[in-house]
Write a structure and sequence with these properties.
The protein has 490 residues and is of the alpha/beta class. It contains 17 helices and 19 strands. The chain starts with a helix and ends with a helix.
Amino acid sequence: MAISDSFSTILQRLGAARVMCLGDVMLDHFLYGEVSRISPEAPVPVFRIVRETLMLGGAGNVARNLSALTAGSVFVAFVGDDAAGHEVAHLLAAEAGVESCLQVLPGRSTTEKSRFVAGVQQLLRADREEVEDLAGPAEAQVLAAVRGSLESCRVLTLSDYGKGLLTPHVLAEVLKLAADRGVPTIVDPKGRDYRRYRGAFLATPNRAELAEATGMPVNGDDAIVSAARHLIETCGIANLLVTRSQDGMTLVEGSGAVHHIPARAREVFDVSGAGDTVVATIAAALAAGGSLVDAARLANLAGGIVVGKVGTATASLAELHAAASAFAGGRDGGKAMSRDLARATVAAWRDQGLSVGFTNGCFDLLHPGHVSLLRQARAACDRLVVGLNSDASVGRLKGPTRPVQDEDARARVLGALSDVDAVVVFEEDTPVELIRALKPDVLVKGADYTVETVVGADIVMAAGGRVVLADLEAGFSTTRTVNKMAAPKS
């Protein structure tokens, strides 16, 4: 594998991760336009709106990021009985893998933030909000929702934007509930008094928030570490991850270990919601069984992805896999993928307007016939996925002496070829379920087949795709090569 084994394991398991998100949700309203003149009414620019979008913000953006990573989540928050609250509920319903436990509180306003963006520059933010702690009955309503679902989750995230959900009582109760169930809690904090987060596994302040909470200098590595250790020691938080913008992140563990993680962003366009991406990625990675250090490093890569986008963005599983692969710089380019990851990657390619091709085989001993098939397949599409029979599948099809090379070796060899963009091992004897999952635009097999006998041809053509029969390179066969190797020499 190109990426580290620990990163690869986390990324392959993200689909089974389940996280509870609790915190202040808001509606992010983005108005995109252009400024070309000054108003004749006052010395202010005239902003001409070209388009606008509505997105989940605050704790909702954590849920969006978990959904983008294919991790599941239980979302607990409150909204008002207003238009913005109804839109939040609608957007949550559209997010895959999000189980919404949204509490509607009549008489409360839903927080809404409107951002005016010209090009990639944010010009103005206008907020509609009501900041007031929940009253007793509403607190009980939220806590009941947490108790009902926390048992099924492996990590709890608390997104504190100071809008009134995370009252001292709610915080104390949910932190105790999580501790009693062995569920680590990750806090995106607010304000000066971090003692209210006592018992949390991790807090993720940015540099300014760390300075506000400690009153200590935060310029430079040593100052950051000293301030972080002060919070750990005085507030009862197990670990601290300080996000430092262009300087990356610093993870200070309760054990005393310190990890400075350099920034990975190529170019920063917009930092809106980047902290939510970091929290979501760490939570998903921990829920997938990763270590805190690996989770922080993956979160750093995810943060680098979203700050390169405009608006409240997310980092997809495919993008994170690609970033991890580029970071490692391995030979196969990180092309070996699980089925879930391949599905997410194919979706990302389609979003870019790229056509996706598929071919499959055992590819036991790579020979010129294979190379020719793959070259023709890649020429028929923009991106090529290769389905690779697992060792068990090859054994059933070819006999007990096969394969000659195990599936990891075969995947690495295929991944090293420039014509191959992704390799997915499948356990079945045929790739029909993999084809059904990926829905390629082009299905490629050798000309020794007919369209009618190509497995999955009906699925692809029913979806509007096509089947390509590639010319065969005469004289080459893995079985012939194996037999020749086994034959006694005269």
